[in-house]
Amino acid sequence: MWDIKRFFPDEFEVGKYANQLLGDYLGQELPLDEAGFMALTIVNAELDSGNVAAQDLTQLMEEIMTIVKYSLEISLDDEDIYVQRFITHLKFFCERVLTDTGHQELDDNDMFDLLKIKYPSAYETATKITQYLKQTRNYQTSDDEQMYLTIHLSRMKRNVNEN
């Protein structure tokens, strides 16, 4: 349930509200887990593709967040704006992975080469994510996707180190 609250905070808040309304109607307090299940239902309805279930999306996001946390050796604060931006990017990225729709190449290899040099730990982490997805899901991450991951990871790490 905490992954749902972490990755889908707006949907979780709606689930809590619905949980409270239903509890009031029934005259009894419902477990908070029910709000998580309602949030998953909302997320499933929001997803563009009927082929992606919120549970699969949440699981993949958590797997990638684990790689990030251990690879960058950082503690992630869900209230941090850079963590929130990364999670937002990660939602769309994971949806593309699960639907195998990929991201179109933009042919900006110069920028990507610069990022590799300037942010080696973020690039290394993005590479670990890429390798993990290739091994576990047979998904080939594009250079553009890896570049965007590197950018978000470097911003997140820099902000964590500054605070």
How are the elements arranged and paired?
Layout: H1 2-7, H2 9-26, H3 33-46, H4 54-72, H5 81-99, H6 109-118, H7 120-137, H8 143-162
Helix pairs in contact: 2-3, 4-5, 4-7, 5-8, 6-7, 6-8, 7-8
Task: Give an overview of the whole structure.
- By secondary structure, this protein is mostly helical.
- Helix 4 packs antiparallel against helix 7.
- It is elongated, with a radius of gyration of 18 Å.
- It has 8 helices and no strands.
- 76% of the residues lie in helices and 0% in strands.
- It folds into 2 domains: 46 residues, PTS-regulatory domain, PRD, CATH 1.10.1790.10; 111 residues, PRD domain (PTS-regulatory domain, PRD, Orthogonal Bundle), CATH 1.10.1790.10.
- It comes from Streptococcus anginosus subsp. whileyi CCUG 39159.
- InterPro entries: BglG_antiterminators, PRD, PRD_sf.
- Keywords: Repeat.
Descriptive tags:
163 residues, mainly alpha, PTS-regulatory domain, PRD, 2 domains, 76% helix, elongated
Task: Please summarize what this structure is.
The chain is mainly alpha-helical and 163 residues long. The protein contains eight helices and no strands. It has two domains: 1-46, Orthogonal Bundle (PTS-regulatory domain, PRD), CATH 1.10.1790.10; 52-162, PRD domain (PTS-regulatory domain, PRD), CATH 1.10.1790.10.
